[in-house]
Amino acid sequence: MTSNTAQQDAAVADKSILANSAYADGRHLAARQSIYRWQQPQYDLPGIVVEELAATSGIVLDVGCGNGKFVSRLHKDRPDLQAVGMDISAGILADVEKPVLVSDAQALPFADNSVDAVLALHMLYHVGDIVATIKELARILRPGGVLIASTNSDIDKRELDQLWSKAAGDVLGIPEGGPARVSLSSRFSLEKACGYLGTAFKDIRVRELPGTIEITDPAPIAAHLASYEAWADECGVPFRETVSRAAEVAAGAIASNGSFKITCLGGILMCRL
Ligand SMILES: C[S@@+](CC[C@H](N)C(=O)[O-])C[C@H]1O[C@@H](n2cnc3c(N)ncnc32)[C@H](O)[C@@H]1O
After folding, report:
1. Which of 3, 37, 138, 157 is deepest in the core (most CB within 10 A)?
2. How many A from CA of 39 to the centre of ligand 1?
3. Whose CA is nearest to atom 12 of ligand 1?
4. Methyltransferase type domain: from which residue to which, for each copy (predicted)?
C-alpha cells in the first residue's frame, strides 16, 4: 500500500491536471484498462453494471465516464435507457457515444430527483470534496434510484508499488528503495468507500472483485506505470527513467520466474438512499 503526501493528493484531484493532461484523451486510461486483459478471473464490469440496472428505467448518468466503456455498453444492451456520459474532460468525450456533457461532478447541471441511476466508476478519488460530491450525486437521484460506484483497495496491485519503489531506488541510488508510487485510489479506496458513501446513502452493498494478473511481457507493465505521467512532477524521481528501469526489473523477474504476478482487488458498490 502506498500513501500519498498532501501534495500528491492535491495533484490527484487537480482539475487542470485531470482535464488537460491525465484524461485529455483516452490514451493513459486505455493503458491502465488494458492490463486487465491478463487478469484471472475476468470480470465483465460493464456487464455487472447492466445486471445491476435490470430494474432501472429512465435516465442513467455516467459521471466521469472517461472513454465511454460503460456508456457504450448501456446503449447496446439497454437501448430503452437514456444513458448520458459526463466528464470534466472535453477531450476524452470526443469519441464517446452521444449524448455527452462536460461538467464537474461537484456541481451537476441536473435538477433534484431527476435521474434514475448514477454511475461514479473509478472517479470519486479524483474529486476535490468527496463528501460534497456524494451529496450532489444523491441530490439528483430520484427516490428509489441507485448509485453504482467503484474503486480499488489499498492493497490493489501492490507488486507494482514495490516494483516502482525498487526502480526509483535504483535510479536515485537508494538501495532500500526510492519514493513510493503516486496512488490514485487511496483518497477513496475500497476500505474508505463505505464510510464516505454512508454520509448520504443508507443501503450499501459491496461486491469485491479479487484477481491476479500474470504477465510474461514487461511492456504492458511499463505502459501501466507510464500512464501516471500527468503526475510525474509529484514522483520525486525522474519519471521516464524510472519507468524504463521498472521495465528492466520486470523483465528480469519474468526471466527468472516465468511471469510477473500482480494481485488485484477492486470493488463495486451499489448504494440506495
Ligand atoms: C479513472 S477514469 C474512470 C473512467 C470510467 N468511469 C471508467 O471506470 O472506465 C476517471 C474519470 O473521471 C473524470 N473526472 C475526474 N474528476 C472529475 C470531476 N470532478 N467531474 C467529472 N469527471 C471527473 C476524469 O476526467 C476521468 O475521465
Report:
1. 157
2. 23
3. 64
4. 61-148
Q: Which atom of ligand 1 is nearest to the CA of 127?
A: 19
Q: For domain 6-272, give its CATH number from 3.40.50.150, 3.40.350.10, 3.40.50.2300, 3.90.1170.40.
A: 3.40.50.150
Q: In this predicted structure, what is the pLDDT of residue 3?
A: 79
Indicate whether residue 96 lines ligand 1 (CB < 6 A): no
Give the CA-trace dihedral at 123, 128, 130, 131, to 10 degrees.
-150
Atom number in ligand 1 closest to CA 62: 6
Mind giving me the DSSP string for 148-192? EEEEE-TTTTHHHHHHHHHHHHHHHT-TT--PPPPPSGGGG-HHH
Mean pLDDT along residues 193-202: 98
Residue found by looking up cell 501501466 in the block: 224
Q: How confident is the model at residue 90 (pLDDT cuts 50, 70, 90)?
A: very high
Q: What is the pLDDT of residue 108?
A: 97
Cell 506505470 belongs to 225
150 neighbors 268 (Cβ within 8 angstroms): yes
β-strand pairing of 141-152 with 203-215: unpaired
Q: What is the residue whose three cell numbers read 490527484?
A: 12
CB 88 less than 6 A from any atom of ligand 1: yes
Written as nine digits, the cell of 226 is 507510464
CB 119 within 8 A of CB 65: yes
DSSP line for 30-76: HHHHHGGGGEES---HHHHHHHHTTT--SEEEEET-TT-HHHHHHHH
